[in-house]
Amino acid sequence: MKNWKNHLLVLILVVVAEAIGVMKFKFGPGTIVLLPMLYALIMGVFLSPKFLKVVNDKDMKDAGSLITISLMLLMARYGTTIGPTLPTIIKSSPALILQEFGNLGTVFIGVPLAVMLGLKRETIGAAHSIAREPNIALISDIYGLDGEEGQGVMGVYISGTVIGTVFFGLLASFFAAYTPLHPYSLAMASGVGSASMMTAAVGSLSAMYPEMQETLTAFGAASNMLSGLDGLYMCLWLSLPATEWLYKRCYRLKYGVEAPKVKQRSKSNPSKGV
């Protein structure tokens, strides 16, 4: 209770968001589902120093330190849904593990696009993954968050937090309505390492397939948990080196010169960025 104002504001936002409840809109054969967490997120944005100035920079820094704890509670809740469907999840384990190769998709699509838009070393942090908490830690350890790579990963992290929840909810509904993909596969695909994005996508799928709600939630939660476990190693050993390699080639194609070499963060002086 060090910062009582933050706790009070969170309580008010949660009460208001829950009072609004889940809103569903028909979109062709699909359904757009807006969850209370989205309302809380939007209201929180407007309380920031850039808008209504209800909170200051110190309040935001204090709140940021609680994100991991809050997500632990959410994932503990999802963990209770995994147990009853564990046999089904075990049968699908190869698919859950192989989906981590999807990290490479962000590299081969994101890097050329970022370089074309004029980004430099920010491309490395922005396009090596979907930039959630483990990826921020990885970039911070290798390059430092005060460098260009750190700016890139933080930019995508913030954009994903604000836009990603809505995008994932819409994307899940679209694919469920217009493609032959099974709802279970879509639930697996929603577990990219972000609890909020996964919740939005599974919420949309559950609204369309209420009879599958428990299994969909279990698949999404299990997939998200595995993404947090092996996704970091996938980024470290595959996607980050691939990002560096592709960035250098895209940079040469665009500017006609070799990309400037940047030293990685010094292990002997971890406080110094690049």
From TrEMBL:
Q: What Pfam family is a match, any one?
A: DUF3100
Keyword field contains Kinase: no
Q: Where are the transmembrane segments?
A: 29-51, 63-81, 101-119, 156-178, 184-209
The record's InterPro entries line, in alphabetical order, gives: DUF3100
Going by the entry's taxonomy, the superkingdom of the source organism is recorded as: Bacteria
The alphabetical list of record keywords is: Membrane, Transmembrane, Transmembrane helix
Name of the protein described by the UniProt record = DUF3100 domain-containing protein
What species is this protein from? Answer: Clostridium mobile
